Amino acid sequence: MDALFAALPWLTNPTVIIRQVMAGLANGMLLFLVASGLSLIFGLSRVINFGHGALFMIGAYLAYSVVGTNSPDLVTFIAMLFAATIGLFVVGVAFEMAILRRIYNSPQAFQLLVTFGLVLIAGDAVRLIWGPAEKSIPLPPIIDDVIQLFGVTFPLYRALLIAIGAAVCLALWWLLYRTHWGVLVRAATADREMLRALGVNVRRIYTVIFGVGAALAGLAGALMAPIVSIGPGLHADVLTEAFVVVAIGGLGSFPGALVGALLVGQANAFGILSFPQMSIVVPFVLMAVVLILRPRGLMGHIE
Fold it and tell me: What is the mean pLDDT, run by run of 10 residues, along the chain of 303 residues?
């Protein structure tokens, strides 16, 4: 035990532990917004949307278009979030109606190639529209501050990320488990042919779910834009981590996406603190351990 404390001296520092837990929650909530959309889309359509990271990137660029390089006020910042969310919902619906619905019965490798095409198109599109240079979005002064939480100083915006992520999670839970539409979505996930035989327009459910998944990615991109550099390669890292989250939580599982995102967020936070030179591999080690013990993920149910 003494050797462990010597190797990881932060274990005896409650302030550092609390700060890292909070940072992990903020990171985890952002990952949840991306991974929940990815998981919902796969759970319903069985399509692994390789272009989901591109939707995230487009959301960040749309946010930049609303705000620009000037420090925005709070109203403009909120308008930016709505613009990215609604804009990506429209993009997702258009992509599903124009392309995806034509390939639902195609081999999965073909589906992956088509969604990967979205990545290539989006990468070239953002270079043409916004240029290759990296962009940044300043925070409104009112939320560019620090607060005291559980006795530690913590950035106010990171605390807001936790609150927004929790609010979206509760809204999605209510939508999926407490509304008639949510019953139809879960029924379509379990047995779409039976639902179609009962006269339900399953195609419309597919379209709306893809739009919702894209909107969640767009919201995550807008929320992350003030804390990262926005560039044409922004999609790569977030897509990798989103797939790690989905693999840990279980393909197609909404609760699994939440649990997986929170675990990966904490793994990132404490991995950087404990193993700064190897922190990038910590989430993958966590994924490997989970998949060895539970090959379908913690809450996976897809056959």
Answer: 56 80 92 90 82 91 86 87 95 91 82 86 88 88 87 90 94 91 84 79 89 94 91 83 91 88 92 79 91 86 49
DSSP 296: T
- DSSP one-letter string for 167-225: HHHHHHHHHHHSSHHHHHHHHHHHHHHHHHHTT--HHHHHHHHHHHHHHHHHHHHHHHG
Rounded Cα distance, 202 and 199, in Å? 9
Of 30, 19, 29, 21, the closest CA to residue 228 belongs to 30
Q: Check if the beta carbon of residue 27 is closer than 8 Å to that of residue 223.
A: no
Q: Per the structure block, which two tokens stand in for 233?
A: 């390669």
CA distances (Å), origin 40, targets 11, 73, 210: 37, 34, 8
Give the pair of three-digit tokens for residue 303.
């056959």
Query: Are the C-beta atoms of 210 and 96 separated by less than 8 Å?
Result: yes
Compute the radius of gyration of the chain from its Cα atoms: 20
Burial pattern 113-149, b for ≥16 Cβ within 10 A else e, equals ebbeebbeebbeebeeebeeeebebebbeeeeeeeeb
Reported pTM: 0.91
Domain ranges in the chain are: 29-233
